[in-house]
């Protein structure tokens, strides 16, 4: 498995790596999956505009967050990129309950416009066209599948369409899908697998192109959130706000599907 140095990418850290937002005297901490960065920024702004306090927000990989919480990290709410990590925390007695599925994510391919790789917008089900795109890439960014649900979905997709062998030696791995996206946006990788929500980011659409991928070729990315035991009222308020009409409208705007009444 290749890894990729991020030292060259510090110039865009203001966009992708604002992972910690500590505010003096704050004690309520929220762990948010990296795929949610843009959508959650909008949701959090609406939450604050409703008269609620600004909380400490940390973005990263769901797997890392789950491990940290298991080891006592002081997070109060986990907004995950999948179901497995929150449910594992619940089984281990770390959460108030099993939580809620708040969104269903979608997978996309991303390339920088200057890469020379062009997407056919009708190619999401065309395996030959996807093979052409992958063949043209020298490096393909992907989130680590053992840590990040979108990385896991990308591997599932490649194997489902029979292109894993073509792609596997070109893969460069990032700790989370936000970092994988940054590799593409900075030109460190020619192509990448990302969340549709990140591909639609206003910060990216000027210089990149994306192709939404066929959802039947990877398992549904059901994203669940859970309150950690002992969470203060502010965390509970945000948990409830994530289920509000306003939050759901923002999630749709950023390319997520809604889970309906799924517990």
Automatic annotation (TrEMBL):
Molybdate binds at residues 62, 177. Keywords: Metal-binding, Molybdenum, Signal. GO terms for molecular function: metal ion binding; molybdate ion binding. SUPFAM superfamilies: Periplasmic binding protein-like II (SSF53850). It comes from the Bacteria. GO terms for biological process: molybdate ion transport. Residues 1-25 form the signal peptide. InterPro entries: AvModA-like_subst-bd, ModA, ModA/WtpA. Belongs to the bacterial solute-binding protein ModA family. PANTHER family: MOLYBDATE-BINDING PERIPLASMIC PROTEIN (PTHR30632), TUNGSTATE_MOLYBDATE_CHROMATE-BINDING PROTEIN MODA (PTHR30632:SF14). This is Molybdate ABC transporter substrate-binding protein. It comes from Polynucleobacter paneuropaeus.
């Amino acid at each position: 498995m290749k890894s990729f140095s991020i030292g060259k990418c510090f110039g865009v850290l203001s966009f992708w790596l604002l992972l910690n937002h500590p505010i003096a005297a704050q004690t309520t901490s929220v762990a948010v999956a990296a795929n949610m960065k843009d959508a959650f920024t909008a949701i959090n702004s609406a939450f604050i505009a409703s008269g609620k306090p600004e909380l400490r927000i940390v973005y990263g990989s769901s797997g890392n967050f789950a491990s940290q919480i298991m080891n006592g990290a002081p997070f109060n709410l986990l907004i995950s990129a999948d179901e497995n990590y929150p449910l594992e925390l619940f089984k281990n007695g770390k959460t108030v309950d099993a939580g809620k599925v708040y969104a269903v994510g979608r997978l996309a391919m991303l390339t920088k416009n200057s890469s020379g790789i062009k997407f056919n917008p009708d190619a999401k089900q065309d395996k030959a066209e996807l093979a052409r795109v992958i063949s043209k890439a020298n490096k393909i960014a992907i989130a680590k599948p053992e840590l990040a649900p979108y990385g896991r979905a990308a591997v599932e997709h490649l194997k489902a369409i029979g292109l894993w062998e073509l792609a596997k030696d070109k893969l460069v791995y990032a700790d989370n899908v936000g970092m994988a996206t940054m590799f593409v946006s900075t030109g460190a990788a020619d192509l990448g697998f990302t969340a549709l929500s990140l591909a639609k980011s206003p910060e990216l659409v000027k210089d990149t192109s994306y192709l939404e991928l066929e959802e039947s070729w990877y398992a549904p990315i059901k994203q669940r959130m859970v309150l950690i035991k002992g969470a203060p009222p502010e965390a509970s308020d945000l948990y409830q706000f994530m289920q509000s009409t306003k939050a759901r409208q923002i999630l749709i705007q950023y390319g997520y599907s809604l889970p309906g009444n799924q517990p």
